[in-house]
Amino acid sequence: MKALNKASVALNNGNKILKNIETFLLAICTITLVAVIFIGVICRYLLFISTAWAEELSRYLFVWLTYIGSAYALSEGGHIEIDIFKQFIISRKNIKDKDHVLKVFEIMSLICTMSFLLIFSYIFWGYMMRIWGTNQTSPTMHIPMGLVYLPVFVGSLISIYHVLYLIFNSLLALKPSQDIK
Known about the structure:
With 181 residues, the protein is mainly alpha-helical. It has one domain. The chain contains five helices and no strands.
């Protein structure tokens, strides 16, 4: 029991730290994105100067926002879900312990999400390694293309941690049904 409590405390602390880092990164990316777009608009419409770097940087910042934000939304339960099975279970009158069945279904759903993220991360890691192996840079800012694709992998890894955390918490909350002996 002590080991389980230590693991729970460690995962909770890790999740809090990770969410704080994500919040900070999202805030920095958002502020920078707004500033870069503002500079681009001022340069284009007031100074009549083309700023290709502003467009490119805003695109890359938006990608970072998307993948880090997606991981954060996963940890908060903010993604869209298809709840047809959940509604079916709730509507059934012959299911005695609906909460238990719903919790098991939630764990199965999280395991499917984890499987997808692991497979996707594995495939994308190989793709990223090929990109890092080239000397290709972005057209305007000359950023290595590996950095451009990095947020996809980072967001996937953060999402994997959040799913592990959610699975662990769901397993802790899962209580054996009184009907099963």
